[in-house]
Amino acid sequence: MKAAVGETVSVLLLCEDSALAAALQAQLNSRGRELMQLKPSELLAQPHLADGAILVNALLTPGEPVTDAVVDIQAELISAVGPKLRCYLGLSDARVVAALDREEPVAENATPAPQGRDAVRLAAMEEQLLSASLQALILRTGPLIATDGDNLLSAFIKALKAGQALGLDDSQQSAPTPVGDLARVLSAMIDQLSCGALCRGIYHYQSSGATSAYAFAEVAYAHAGQYLATPPDISIDGDGWGWVTDSRVLRCERLLRNFGIKQLAWRSWLPKMIKTLCEDDCDERL
């Protein structure tokens, strides 16, 4: 379905992550686009909203449990509004390839190898969407970091400010992705899909720079140290804080090849994010 000249394509978002929703809203607003955030029940009750629209299903963020309810919701959406949509873009994560060799980044065309019930359900959701009779895209990402919510960066800075001693895992590599960077990518994809890009299938996006949780914490402290009264007490601990279960480093070549979207380094986002986290705390004490 190609957009007519001057046609405005609606963008619908299903998302419970307030940080990601706000970041995507800001990105689309900067491009003069409007975003309608809905609950699945609201969209199912008003199927006309899907007419010619792009649907972004971000109900699952990396590492979250995959319940039967979430699987059933996607099936209902595909059946009820799928034929009306311009395209359906669903978020996924690396759990679907958890059992593959961990030495190399995972390519987009790797055969799924889920490990555990959640991963099996997530892989089934991917297959369910890709086999549907509609333009469907899957974007695997994560782990996400933000200035609020439950993520490693915000939890780490909060613990540092409280003077806690922390142990962090130094073995598992991943690529933390700021929600602002993911929103940038989603917005750029939406722009091109709105103009009739016929892309479909599996894509990957993580910010560039594979790192362990411990190495990430060292970089985070390098920026946060100026706001803290005492140096941190952090150590390497295989049972300590780490990335969400089954995080992997993903190749992001197909996104660049088909959409022309380049990776940005997560390190470039940290100074502003950490300043926000630390200054918010200072403001609360005034």
Could you please describe the fold and organization of this structure?
This protein is 37% helix and 15% strand. It has 286 residues and is of the alpha/beta class. It has a domain at 11-144 and 175-209 and 245-265: Rossmann fold. A six-stranded parallel β-sheet has the order 2-1-3-4-5-9, with helices on both faces. Helix 1 packs across helix 6, helix 3 (68-80) runs parallel beside helix 4 (117-130) and helix 5 (152-161) crosses helix 7 (213-224). The longest helix is centred in the middle third of the chain and has 16 residues, at 179-194.
Give a topology summary.
Blueprint: E1 11-15, H1 18-30, E2 35-38, H2 40-45, E3 54-58, H3 68-80, E4 87-93, H4 117-130, E5 136-141, E6 144-145, H5 152-161, E7 165-168, E8 177-178, H6 179-194, E9 201-204, H7 213-224, E10 233-236, H8 253-259, H9 270-285
Parallel strand pairs: 1-2, 1-3, 3-4, 4-5, 5-9, 6-8, 7-10
Helix pairs in contact: 1-6, 3-4, 5-7
Uncertain spans, ≥5 residues at pLDDT below 50?
282-286
Question: What general outline do the C-alpha atoms trace?
Answer: globular
* Biggest sheet architecture: 6 strands, parallel
Mean pLDDT: 91
How much of the sequence lies in strands comes to 15-25%
**What is the CATH T-level topology of the domain at 11-144 and 175-209 and 245-265?**
Rossmann fold
Widest sheet, order of strands: 2-1-3-4-5-9
Q: What is the overall number of helices? A: 9
Helix percent band: 25-40%
The CATH homologous superfamily of the domain at 11-144 and 175-209 and 245-265: NAD(P)-binding Rossmann-like Domain
- The top level CATH class name of the domain at 11-144 and 175-209 and 245-265: Alpha Beta
Query: Between the first and last Cα atoms, what is the distance in angstroms?
Result: 54 Å
Q: Please identify the structural class as seen in this structure.
A: alpha/beta
Going by CATH, the architecture of the domain at 11-144 and 175-209 and 245-265 would be 3-Layer(aba) Sandwich
